[in-house]
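Continuing the batch. This is chain 6 of the set; chains 1 through 5 are on the previous pages. Same settings as before, nothing changed between runs. Recording input and output for traceability.
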Amino acid sequence: LNRIGAEIAADPEWAPLILEAPNVLGVDDIGAETYDLRFSGRTLAAQQWKVAREIRRRIAMEGAP
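Output for chain 6:
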């Protein structure tokens, strides 16, 4: 997942929106069949939701870790 954060930060289409590459801080919650991870990174103002959607899309395309 940290690799995906580094890749999006280096992607010419997304790099202008990202001030600090997203990275995994750790596991936030564990459920019976799921777990939540906390990411941290910095984007331009009001661009965090757009970048977060792209990160989730890239994770989904590769499959869950």
